[in-house]
Structures are given as C-alpha cells and as structure tokens.
C-alpha cells in the first residue's frame, strides 16, 4: 500500500473518530441540559405544592412570585399546545392544578359571592368591600 493511501485512511479514520466524539459530546450535553430542565421543573413543582399548602389553590399571583407565576402560565401554555409530558400532567392534576386561569378566577369569585350572599342576604357587594377588596371591585353593587 502506498504512503498516500495510508495517509488517506488515517485521515478518514481521524475524521470519523472526531465525528463520533462530537456526536457523543453533543449527546451528553443534551442529556445534561435535559436533566437540568427536569430538575428545575421539579423545583418549581415543589414551590407550587408549598404555595397550595399555604393558600389552598394553585393560582399563583405575580406579586407572590413572578418566577412561579410565569412557570404556572407556561404549564398552561404547554397543556393547550399538547406539549406537556404525561407524567407532569398527572402530577399537576393530582394537586388540583387548574388548566384554565379565567375559569379558575371566575369560580373563586363566584364562591366568594355566594359566601357574601349567605352572610348578608344579597349580592350587592360594595365597591370598597374591606373584607375582600377584589370581590368589591368585580361585583360593584
């Protein structure tokens, strides 16, 4: 075999080895970032569980935690787009996660209004209702 052919084989082998190393490194980098994302998701999920334990719902206001509020919105977006992983969907459902923020707020205000009606006998909530200012703003009697 001539020296040029041997050099060609060596060069081809080196290129092939280099490509394999690149692909292997790419795989490990992807795996690393996938694990980091999963870890971050679990961290936010734990924060949401703690929020629910303290507040009784999964409706995280922006003023409580902009980061957690944004994460909750992202989960709803992924759900609407059909991009949420099945195991995450199940975990969120198990803690009573509301997939529709507007419907959730409406249900909350409706139950608050029914409590107001039970206590006062009517639904004319004053605009500046001190016990629940949000209800007073929405249901202006």
From TrEMBL:
Keywords: Membrane, Transmembrane, Transmembrane helix. The chain crosses the membrane at residues 6-33. Residues 41-97, 104-137 form the Helicase-associated domain. This is Helicase-associated domain-containing protein. The lineage of its organism: Eukaryota, Sar, Stramenopiles, Ochrophyta, Bacillariophyta.
């Amino acid at each position: 075999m001539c020296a040029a052919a041997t050099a060609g084989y060596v060069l081809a082998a080196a290129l092939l080895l280099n490509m394999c190393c690149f692909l292997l490194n790419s795989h490990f980098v992807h795996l690393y970032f996938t694990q980091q994302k999963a870890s971050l998701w679990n961290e936010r999920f734990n924060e949401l569980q703690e929020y629910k334990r303290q507040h009784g719902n999964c409706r995280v206001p922006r003023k409580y935690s902009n980061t957690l509020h944004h994460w909750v919105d992202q989960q709803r977006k992924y759900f609407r787009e059909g991009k949420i992983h099945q195991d995450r969907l199940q975990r969120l459902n198990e803690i009573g996660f509301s997939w529709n923020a507007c419907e959730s707020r409406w249900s909350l205000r409706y139950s608050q209004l029914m409590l107001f009606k039970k206590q006062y006998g009517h639904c004319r909530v004053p605009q500046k209702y001190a016990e629940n200012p949000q209800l007073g703003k929405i249901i202006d009697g």
